[in-house]
Amino acid sequence: MNIENNKVVSVIYELRLANNDGEIVEKVTDQRPLNFIPGNGNLLPKFESNLEGLKVGESFDFIINSQEAYGQVLKEAIIDIPKSVFASDDKIDESLFNIGNIVPMMDKEGNHFNGKVVELVDNMVKMDFNHPLAGEDLHFKGQIIGMREATQEELTHGHVHGSSNCDSCDSDCNNECK
After folding, report:
1. E strand or H helix that includes residue 105
2. Which fold has domain 7-69+134-166?
3. CA 47, CA 11: separation in Å to the nearest integer?
4. Residues whose CB is less than 8 angstroms from the CB of residue 163 and which lie 6 or more positions away in sequence, other chains included
5. Domain extent listing, the chain
6. How far is C-alpha 52 from the geometric centre of its chain's CA atoms?
7. Three-state secondary-structure class, residue 68
8. Whole-angstrom Cα distance, residue 13 to residue 105?
9. Torsion angle of the four alpha carbons 133, 138, 142, 148, in this order, in degrees rounded to the nearest 10
10. What fold does the segment set 75-128 form as a domain?
11. CB of 83 within 8 A of CB of 123?
């Protein structure tokens, strides 16, 4: 059976930055493999296209350039925000502003995203809203360890379920699985 849409594919891999030091970013093992349904748009398209046609037991080793991964670092995604935005009950938790902290935020439309604190100047916080891997080429090396037909419920919800339903898949189906 080859990898194709409407299958549940299980992979293990090591993700390294494809630069001179090859720093390991993520390691996915057979104790908790990545399970996905190709074609649902949940993964980088180039990741999926590099796996097309592979079979269980086959290995892969490829690099995705930054443009086809998370794009380049955008200067306009690094912005100054007044500290007052972070006030709760007229108090500001200064521990939020440690350089390197990732702060969950929400815009006026209710969209959730994370910002990284990169600098403090007076009453302003410079935050970087680029993806943490923006500007990086990614080197994936791994193996296909399993494949099966996706259930109708998984296809409807657009993601892989655990052993019984969404209760075990760590995903939010808006309680449609119950």
Report:
1. strand 102-106
2. Chitinase A; domain 3 (3.10.50)
3. 12
4. none
5. 7-69+134-166, 75-128
6. 20
7. helix
8. 30
9. 60
10. Thrombin, subunit H (2.40.10)
11. yes
- C-alpha 52/C-alpha 100 separation (Å) is 37
**Given this chain, do its domains 7-69+134-166 and 75-128 carry the same CATH topology?**
no
Phi/psi zone of residue 63: left (φ > 0), alpha (ψ -120 to 50 degrees), beta?
beta
The answer, as to whether pTM is greater than 0.85, is no
Per-10-residue mean pLDDT of the chain, 178 residues long, equals 82 91 92 91 92 95 96 96 88 88 90 93 94 95 94 87 53 50
Which pair of structure tokens corresponds to residue 4? 């194709």
| CB-based contact 162:30 (threshold 8 Å) | no
b/e sequence 34-63, b meaning 16+ C-beta within 10 Å: bbbbbebeeebebbbebbeebeeeeeeeee
State the number of CA atoms in the 13 A half-sphere of 82 facing the CB.
3
